[in-house]
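The authors assume throughout that readers already know how a fold can be written as discrete tokens. Each protein is reduced to its one-letter sequence and a matching series of backbone shape codes. I therefore recommend that a typical entry be quoted early in the introduction. For illustration, here is how one protein appears when written out as sequence plus structure tokens:
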Amino acid sequence: MELAVALSKYVGEEEPLPLITEFVSGYAKKGQLSSTEIDILPDLINLRIFSNVIYFTGRALAGEDGIGSLTSRAGSYAKRVAWVNANREAIVDAVKQRMLQLTSTAA
């Protein structure tokens, strides 16, 4: 989930895939993911985005913040989820390729 949290910010950028690939390059130097973990990474990225929605909804319901804190971010959240869903295969392929490259280089 840690990788998904970090990548959830990049998917809102104009060209997310190169950023994802570069971040994974650094991550893979110390952390590894199984094939199954990589396959569900897009879902975990979306889960992180949805957790932000829940967080800001809860703050509004508790009176700690106005609903504007959520509504001002809603478009960005929707754009991120749409990009992840449209690019699931590319995300998984890029992460698998980078992890494999770094693993074979270290061996």
User: Anything to note?
Assistant: DSSP finds six helices and no strands in the chain. The first helix runs from residue 2 to 10.
